[in-house]
Amino acid sequence: MSVTPLELSLDVEVTRGDATESRHRVHAAVVTSDGSIVVRARDSSRVTMWRSCAKPFQVLPFLSSGGFDQLGWGDEQLALACASHGGEPEHVAVAAKMLDSIGLEEGDLACGPHEPFSVRGVKQARTLGIAYSRLHNNCSGKHAAMLARAFTAGWSFAGYERSDHAVQRSCLAEIASWTGVSIDDMPLGVDGCGVTVMALPLDRMARAYARWGFAVAAGDEWPARTAAAIRAQPHLLGGTDRFDTTMIEETKGRIISKVGAEGVHCAAVPEMGLGVAIKVEDGASRAQHVALLEALQRVGALPPDLPPRLAEWASTLIRNTRGEEVGRVS
Predict the structure, then answer these.
(1) Which entry of 31, 53, 86, 180 is 20 to 30 Å from 47 by CA?
(2) Domain map of the chain by residue range?
(3) Residue in 157, 158, 194, 189 with CA at minimum distance from that of residue 172
């Protein structure tokens, strides 16, 4: 029996004084593991790039192939493979160890260097006089895992990031399986880190996360193992001041969220069998956390009164250069 989805507005407003200065339009879908949409905001089937929200699925072929265990890797490596990390010393160290275990080094990563996403990561590098390397890239764990996939499968490292390479074809096939979208129907592009990225409808993204969460709750080996690693190592998934780490810590792993660039964010609520996908239309990252928290509250996955650390993300203060509060994102 079909259920009429609840229609919500998850749009985010930016106020300054008593005036609304900006507004971010938000599209979203909350879906059950059987594909039923229970909540939607604006266009729940809007097609957009999945960006880093795809990472927990991209690592699954490596796990199921046996290659991951062949290397003797554990929770740290698995969590970092799924991460959009903050470039802190712990992240850099694990990524370096991953590469070293297959006889490679930082220069073999296809991703480029950038300033760490975490304030702590930036401060640590400056204090120690360390130049930013490819290991500081928030996707270095994913790239190291993809190189390891090629290594254990006996595939060439060359072009491992490109859509025609066996590594990426296996990732795309896995994503097709979870989303129900064939590879031929996925527009492909190049992500910020240089690896292949795919576009999907929001409701299919949410469906994949719902199915993944259902599999986690049921104890299915590879999804359950991935979730266990993320729950055991939330700091490696994000970092000191990163939203996904806060979400996992504050909910004790009941909700696993995964950030993507350009205003995309997904979450799984295994105990409720729900998956959530949102897209801030203009790509503003300042709006995506607010919208995701609101969606999770509306379906009862989070309480009306959020824990203090999550509440900080639900309504962000805007300050001027003198540190005075002049507005709010909510």
Answers:
(1) 86
(2) 47-316
(3) 189
